[in-house]
Amino acid sequence: MSKKILILPGDGIGPEIVTEALKVLEVLRRDHGLAVEMEQGLIGGAAYEAAGKPLPDETLALARAADAVLLGAVGGPQWDRIEWSLRPERGLLGIRGELGLFANLRPAILYPQLAAASSLRAELVAGLDIMIVRELTGDVYFGQPRGIRTLESGEREGFNTMVYRETEIERIVRVAFTIAGRRRRQVCSVDKANVLEVSQLWREVAERVSKEYPAVELSHLYVDNAAMQLVRAPKQFDVVVTGNLFGDILSDCAAMLTGSIGMLPSASLDAAGKGLYEPIHGSAPDIAGKGVANPLATILSVAMLLRHTLAQVELADRIEQAVGAVLNKGLRTGDIMAEGMQRVGTQAMGDAVVAALRQQA
Ligand code: NAD
Fold this sequence. Notes:
Elements: E1 3-10, H1 14-32, E2 36-40, H2 45-51, H3 57-65, E3 68-73, H4 88-98, E4 103-109, H5 122-125, E5 129-135, E6 147-150, E7 156-159, H6 166-181, E8 186-191, H7 197-210, E9 217-222, H8 223-232, E10 239-242, H9 244-257, E11 265-269, E12 275-279, H10 296-308, H11 313-328, E13 331-332, E14 342-343, H12 346-359
Parallel strand pairs: 1-2, 1-3, 3-12, 5-10, 8-9, 8-10, 13-14
Antiparallel strand pairs: 4-5, 4-11, 6-7, 11-12
The chain binds nicotinamide-adenine-dinucleotide (NAD).
C-alpha cells in the first residue's frame, strides 16, 4: 500500500531545497518502485501570510493523516515582530507537540571528503558518524512548576523543574538501543547522576532496558565529560542517548564538529515510528531566492525518512551513496566550498544527486 508523505516547504530557502529533495523522491518512485503519495501544505511564515497562523488546522490534519512529514525550514526577519504565538517557529513547535514526536534523531556525519570543513583536525573527524538521540517532549523545558516569583525579601527568583517519568525514559532509551542494533551496537547514555536524582533514575532505567538488548553495549557518561569527549575524540561514539536539555546542547556541539550546517538531516519520531524529517539548519534568509543553498541536508532527510519510517533501508543507502558520489566528483555549494572544487548552485547539486542515483547499478 502506498505511504503518504506531507511536504511542508516553509520559508526562506525551504521551498528551494525541498524542490531538490522532491526530485530525488520522484526518481525513487519511478525507477525503484517506491510507493509514496505526496501532498503539500503550509507552515511557518508562509502559512501565517495565507491563513493567519503558522500551523493551520488543515496542515495539522494532513500531518496526522500522513505517514511522514518532510519539512524545509521556517522563519524570517519579516515575522520577527509579530505576536509570539503567531511566529513561524511556533508552527514547528506546534506540529512536533501535536504529533507527540518525542525522539529527536540528530546524526553528526562528516563525509571524509569534507573533513577540512571541521574546526577540529581532519584526522579526529574524518568519517565521523554519531547518532544523537535526544528526548524532545519532557525535561526542564516542560516540567512544572516553572516561573519567576518574588520572594519576601523582594528579590525575584526564576525556577524550572527537571522531571522524567520512568515510561518517558524507557521509550527514548529503547529508540536508542534499536538504532544502535542497526549500527555499531554501542549506546552511551549521558546524564548528571552524580548530582541530580532525575539522572539517577535515568541511569537505573537505562540499565534495566539494556537487558532487553544483550547485543548492544551500554556505557554512561556525565554530561560535562560527554561534552569534553565530543571535542576530544568524537569518533569513540556510536549512539548517544540523553534528555532534552543535555541533548539540545550536545547535538548542536556534535553537529558543528562537521562544520557544514548544510549537510545535516534530522528526524523527530513518535512511538509508532511516524516522523517529521528536516534539515537542522534554518531558513537562511540571507541567501534565500539566490539559488545557492545546499540541498543535501534535505535530501539526506529523505534518506532518514526512508530508513526510519518507511523501512526502505536499501533506498536510503542509495541516496547516501549518491550524495557521496557527488562529493567525490568535487561538486560543492558555497557553504562547503574548498579550493580546487567546483562550485554549484542548489538546482545543479540536486540534479547531480539525481544523476548519481540513476547511474547506480
Ligand atoms: P540558519 O540556519 O538559517 O542560517 C545560519 C547560516 O547558515 C546562514 O549564514 C545561512 O546562510 C547558512 N545556511 C543555513 N542553511 C544553509 C544551506 N542549506 N546552505 C547554505 N548555507 C546555509 O540560522 P539563522 O540565520 O539563525 O536563522 C534564520 C531563520 O531560520 C530564523 O528565522 C530562525 O528562527 C529560523 N530557524 C528555523 C529552523 C527550522 O526551521 N528548523 C532552525 C533554525 C533556525
